Amino acid sequence: MMRIAATLKAAERELTDAGRDASMAEWWLMHVLQVDRTGLLVRLSEELTASETEAFDDGMERLIAGEPVQHLIGHAPFYGRAFEVNRDVLIPRPETEELIEWVAEHVGAVGDDEIVDVGTGSGAIAVTLSLELGKRVHTVDISREAIAVAKRNAKALGADVVFHEGDCLAPIKDESIRVLVSNPPYIEADELLDETVAAFEPHLALFGGADGLDFYRKIIADSTRVLRPDWQLIAFEIGYNQGQVVKTYLSERYPEAETGILKDINGKDRIVFAVREGIAHGNEMDQAD
């Protein structure tokens, strides 16, 4: 029998050789042993039991084949909470936490039913905004399967979210919304994706038409119908090369608004926003004009 430390090292090497992310081994091992990182460190000199070894090896085969570790575990961390994920929803990315942070920081006083998130997925954005702001949030997704996952997440985490099945803003009432947030599908139709994403995550949630911008055009065009005259802000997550064009779409539709582009932790364009004139929040938003 190998000690846990040696098992982990061998697994990391195996994943690296297969072109996978080596850190998945530790994540999977913690799940098999039902321990956190500290618990794992404490046990490194011990040996795995036969059943633990079997479970770990089974999972390793799936990881080497490209399956995301979050699917094996059944959940992914987002903004300090665990969200159930499966093949019907996109795995929430850490970059999207920055979208939540920016919205939470810049939103003014809003009531229930005044925030909408387009493209529910796992519910990461809608659920998190509801919990962080203490408000009822509306969210729309065209995938019934995604909504089922998101409903379970809202229930498990105690969030107040209203779900709509439909295309973009179509199910949302006229002049009902003050804050619009979306991380829509934005990958160009012919872009080659890592096979771990392409084979295991829903294409419906990934691809945004030939230039990747279909959903921004559609949401921005229909936003004038659903936003109230006293709307506050619009915030989109974008692909790294889409900032300028999405900002232009927003400026054309809302010439009186302040618009801008924000970079993520990796220094890539990640968020495009519009803030209604008269409710600007100082100059920190001019960093990428």
Observed structural traits:
Helicase, Ruva Protein, domain 3, seven-stranded mixed beta sheet, 2 domains, alpha/beta, Rossmann fold, elongated, 15% strand, 9 strands, two-stranded antiparallel sheet
Detailed description of the structure:
The chain is of the alpha/beta class and 289 residues long. The protein folds into 2 domains: 70 residues, Helicase, Ruva Protein, domain 3, CATH 1.10.8; 203 residues, Vaccinia Virus protein VP39 (Rossmann fold, 3-Layer(aba) Sandwich). It is built from 11 helices and 9 strands. It has a 7-stranded mixed beta sheet with strand order 5-4-3-6-7-9-8, with helices on both faces. Strand 3, helix 7 and strand 4 form a beta-alpha-beta unit. Helix 6 packs parallel to helix 7. The longest helix has 15 residues. The protein is elongated and about 70 Å long. It starts with a helix and ends in a 14-residue tail after the last strand. Belongs to the protein N5-glutamine methyltransferase family. PrmC subfamily.
Provide a brief overview of the structure.
The protein contains 11 helices and 9 strands. It has 289 residues and is α/β, with parallel strands linked by helices.
